[in-house]
Design goal:
Blueprint: H1 4-11, E1 18-21, H2 26-45, H3 51-77, E2 82-85, E3 90-91, E4 93-99, H4 104-113, H5 116-121, E5 130-136, E6 142-151, E7 154-165
Antiparallel strand pairs: 1-2, 2-3, 4-5, 5-6, 6-7
Helix pairs in contact: 2-3
Length: 166
């Protein structure tokens, strides 16, 4: 989805509260390290007669090593940045929701009022006729919304980006 408009609006806040940052690679590296530890435990502590336990540790260890390694390589080789909230000290959570075209007016009113309950109560669909992009701080002190409409084989923004700070 096109997050460029909403990200640019967040980065342009006068307080410079939101900054572009790369996601750290420490957690996936720790995951890969845990996989290595499981393989070492399997080879040193588990006897050959414990077939199910040995195979479980082997499969789990290899899976964790592969997952952690792939994510570390991806994050180190990619220069993609995501919005980071300096006030809460965490990355903003991204969410996409899809709505029927008939709900566009009600959705716009709810977004303009920052009525989270009304947005949550609206029926969702699996078709992206109307898409609501949302970035939210963990503590709920910052919300940003952007509405897109799918028309003529592309997503077009409807209105402006709405940002609410507490």
């Amino acid at each position: 989805m096109y997050t460029q408009n909403i990200c640019e609006a967040l980065y342009a806040l006068p307080s410079q509260r939101v900054q572009p940052r790369r996601k750290p690679f420490i957690k996936p590296a720790a995951t890969a390290l845990l996989g290595i530890v499981l393989l070492v435990i399997n080879s040193l502590c588990v006897s050959d007669s414990a077939g199910a336990l040995s195979m479980t540790l082997l499969v789990l260890g290899i899976t964790l090593i592969l997952y952690g390694g792939i994510v570390v390589i991806y994050r180190l080789s990619n220069s993609e940045s995501v919005p980071y909230d300096t006030k809460s000290g965490s990355f903003l959570k991204y969410r996409e929701r899809y709505f029927d075209r008939m709900l566009l007016d009600a959705l716009q009113r709810a977004v303009e009022r920052n009525d989270i309950k009304a947005i949550d109560d609206m029926p969702k669909t699996n078709v992206s006729a109307i898409t609501l992009l949302e970035y939210r701080a963990k503590d709920g002190s910052l919300q940003a919304y952007s509405i897109y409409e799918y028309a003529e084989f592309e997503h077009r923004p409807i209105g402006e980006v709405h940002i609410f700070e507490k």
